[in-house]
Automatic annotation (TrEMBL):
It comes from the Eukaryota. Residues 50-491 form the Major facilitator superfamily (MFS) profile domain. It is found in: Membrane. InterPro entries: MFS (IPR011701), MFS_dom (IPR020846), MFS_trans_sf (IPR036259), Sugar_transporter_CS (IPR005829). Keywords: Membrane, Transmembrane, Transmembrane helix. This is Major facilitator superfamily (MFS) profile domain-containing protein. The lineage of its organism: Eukaryota, Fungi, Dikarya, Ascomycota, Pezizomycotina. SUPFAM superfamilies: MFS general substrate transporter. GO terms for molecular function: transmembrane transporter activity. It is a multi-pass membrane protein. The chain crosses the membrane at residues 45-67, 87-104, 116-133, 173-194, 206-226, 247-266, 278-302, 314-333, 353-372, 384-403, 409-433, 445-466. The keyword Membrane applies.
């Protein structure tokens, strides 16, 4: 950062102007309509505002196609290119991008504008998807996942733009439109993904070519239709803009969250907690978070974690809520399809059909939630019901067994779909309406980064729990099933190894093996995986219970609607 003694008089004036802009903007009432650049002076919705929202939701749809593609097709992708022990990293890396880059991007958008960040990152994601579709190794797939995830760093902007261009009273419907696009994109993606890989293990490649075209179209629509007037901050000189950015906080966020998630991701995948691969990045992450907390609380109160965001309790509670919402979503996105195919023997397309019920339920509930919040000006009841729905879903899935009818799974998914819609819409609205107008972009960035962090941390926790449960029980369950059937002792180890790798050719070559022994060993393996899935859902239920308490107690979230415009 340039020191004051090295700055020219022009730069000093620019910095003073920046401080004046920030200072004066703190006096803007939170009921101010931010979208006056696109909405009509009378507060009516214009065609430009509608087209802008459509353009934004198209890009957001790409994010859902990508996260569902990586989660639903992860096992298929790694079975095609290798690296099955790194399947979870496909989703972890994608989720790291908005977690680490989201808050800095949201503040940068205040000074350089939102439009070009959305457009450029959409085009970068398009290139990343093309590279990913041509991957021939897990290393290439993981590397291109970072590039393909570039657009997800602008999730906060995509939530902020509809609220920017629409009058205040329509903001619940603006968030409804964004969330609806996610549901529609997810449904389309599940059907496309399931159909493409049903008979062809390499069918995931055209899926990501398709995703590249979605990002191209979305970025182009934003380029054409989103035409905001320059903000006052955008007129500042480059040195003034850099001086106004909270660069120390940005650096600490990148270091802390990146190392923390890497450490969690490596835990029991494949390293134990005491291994340096887990312990070193985890410790660095925790120390960096401590440093970030000290810096934001005591040193820079109007930086990236501006204290004005926390003048009411709603913003902090909304952060906790979206953290849990993302954690619940990632459990379903990453494990449900795998469970359907492995435990219940369903094909990819059928698994996608069952999974899609989540989004049908989410779409219907999102519409009802948007109507309810707009009509009653209340956000707490939907948030409360959301975590009840999450808890019901996780309890039902934790108690499901291999004998549970597949038809039950269709009904179970209604609850998780309801929970996703009941939580995200009111929590984002509560946070935005409780945020000063000048901090909508920064606040939404922190909120979406918190949501992405929930997915990253949740997946790392679930993956460590899942892998440790499988490792602890796989061999014992298989041995308990096959030893009574008379498999020669010398054949036990190669049989267990071949079955764990799900290699049919090696199984057939094991001396003394019979179809009955293979079937018994398979049932033992499924029992071990069933325990692993159950532990994932039990953990999800515990997080849901904690989130339920945060919205149930009267000291917490309240309705932020006032002076509606």
């Amino acid at each position: 950062m340039v020191s004051n003694c090295e700055m020219s008089s022009k730069d000093v004036n620019g910095v003073l102007k920046a401080s004046q802009v920030v200072s004066s903007n703190r006096n803007i009432p939170s009921s101010d309509t931010v979208g006056e650049v696109v909405t009509s002076p009378e507060g009516r919705v214009t065609a430009g505002a509608v087209l802008t929202v459509i353009a934004v939701v198209f890009v957001y749809m790409g994010h859902m196609l990508q996260i569902n593609g990586l989660g639903f097709l992860g096992q298929t992708i790694t079975s095609d290119i290798g690296g099955q022990d790194k399947t979870a990293w496909l989703v972890i890396i994608f989720a790291l991008v908005p977690t680490v880059a989201g808050p800095p991007i949201s503040q940068i958008a205040d000074f350089w504008g939102r439009k070009w960040l959305v457009v450029i990152t959409a085009y970068i994601s398009m290139v990343g998807c093309i590279i990913f579709s041509r991957s021939d190794s897990i290393g290439m797939a993981l590397g291109s996942s970072v590039v393909a995830g570039a657009s997800s760093a602008c999730q906060s902007i995509l939530h902020a733009v509809p609220s920017e261009v629409l009058p205040r009273r329509y903001r619940p419907w603006a968030q409804t439109a964004v969330i609806l696009s996610a549901g529609i994109g997810a449904i389309f993606g599940l059907y496309a993904a399931g159909g493409m890989v049903e008979t062809n293990v390499s069918g995931w490649r055209p899926y990501f070519y398709m995703l590249a075209s979605v990002y191209f179209i979305g970025g182009s629509l934003v380029l054409v239709f989103y035409r905001p007037k320059p903000r006052q901050e955008q007129q500042l000189s480059l040195s003034a803009k850099l001086h106004a950015l909270d660069l120390p906080a940005m650096g600490l966020i990148i270091v802390s969250l990146l190392t923390l998630c890497i450490g969690l991701g490596y835990s029991n995948n494949p390293y134990p907690w005491t291994n340096v691969h887990v312990l070193a990045p985890f410790v660095v992450g925790v120390v960096s978070i401590g440093g970030l907390a000290w810096y934001s609380i005591f040193y820079n109160i109007h930086g990236l974690f501006d204290h004005d965001l926390y003048q009411t309790r709603n913003f902090a509670i909304a952060q906790a809520g979206v953290f849990t919402e993302s954690l619940a979503f990632i459990a379903v996105a990453n494990y449900f399809g795998f469970q359907c195919s492995l435990i219940y023997g369903q094909g990819h397309f059928t698994s996608g059909l069952i999974y899609s019920i989540v989004y049908y339920a989410s779409i219907v509930t999102t519409l009802l939630t948007g109507w309810y919040c707009s009509r009653t000006k209340k956000v707490r009841p939907p948030a409360l019901l959301a975590f009840i729905a999450f808890g019901i879903y996780f309890i039902l899935m934790a108690t499901a067994t291999r004998s549970t009818p597949v038809a039950n799974l269709w009904g179970y998914n209604v609850f998780i779909g309801m929970g996703l819609a009941l939580s995200l819409n009111p929590l984002v609205v509560a946070a935005q309406l409780s945020t000063p107008a000048r901090l909508i972009s920064t606040g939404t960035g922190l909120l979406i980064a918190t949501r992405a962090l929930g997915g990253s941390v949740g997946l790392a926790i679930f993956n460590a729990l899942f892998n440790s449960t499988v490792q602890k029980n796989l061999v014992s369950k298989i041995l308990a099933a096959i030893i009574p059937l008379g498999l020669p002792e010398a054949s036990v180890e190669p049989f267990v190894s071949a079955l764990a790798a799900r290699n049919e050719e090696l199984l057939a070559k094991v001396p003394g093996v019979t179809p009955d022994i293979i079937e018994a060993g398979l049932q033992g393996m499924l029992d071990a995986y069933g325990l692993a899935f159950r532990n994932v859902y039990i953990t999800g239920a515990c997080f849901s219970a904690a989130a339920f308490l945060s919205t149930r107690l009267p000291i917490f979230i309240y309705s932020p609607f006032h002076n509606d415009g």
